[in-house]
Fold this sequence. Notes:
The protein is mainly alpha-helical. The chain has helices at residues 2-11, 18-49, 56-94, 102-127, 133-136, 140-147, 149-165. The chain has one domain. The chain contains seven helices and no strands. The longest helix is centred in the middle third of the chain and has 39 residues, at 56-94.
Amino acid sequence: MKDLKFLRIKRKKGDLPDMLIFMVTVFILAIGLFIFSFIIPEITDGLAEAGLNESSEGFDAIQQVNEIGTVVIQRGFFFLFVGLIIGVMITSFLSSTHPIFFFMYILFLAVTIFIATYFGNAYQQLISNPIFVERMADQTLINVVMDNIVLITLAVGALSFIIIFAKFRSSGGGGGGGAL
Length: 180
């Protein structure tokens, strides 16, 4: 039973759309968490204006929720972002790809980078909205990642490309003749 599970895991392979999935996931996380970072301070400001912070416990609770909107969301985005990069690298390492897919990977990475420019521009249009300008300064990590989404996609894609196609392969069986 244990060997059967190992064989299923061993057959899992990374594929070409990994970079596209990475970029789309980063974009969705950035937009979603940026919106949350806008909504949470608006709510806490409303609670403070309503007089719910008159006691020290109420004030502390509102401050903690406000901190979630500024600090915790940024750190969470950063950890998810790093986790996605590590996930792409792991799937790249575990994939066994035939060298014929070399040019196809380059073409797919070029398409992904082309789409990344549109995602970067869409994020810039969102944060240039006058409603969001005040909160934009608080979200430096999300802004840095989305300002450089094209370069990040290129770097992660190039590293994934190197890992996929530069691995040593050995022939199966006990006859030797493996790559050195």
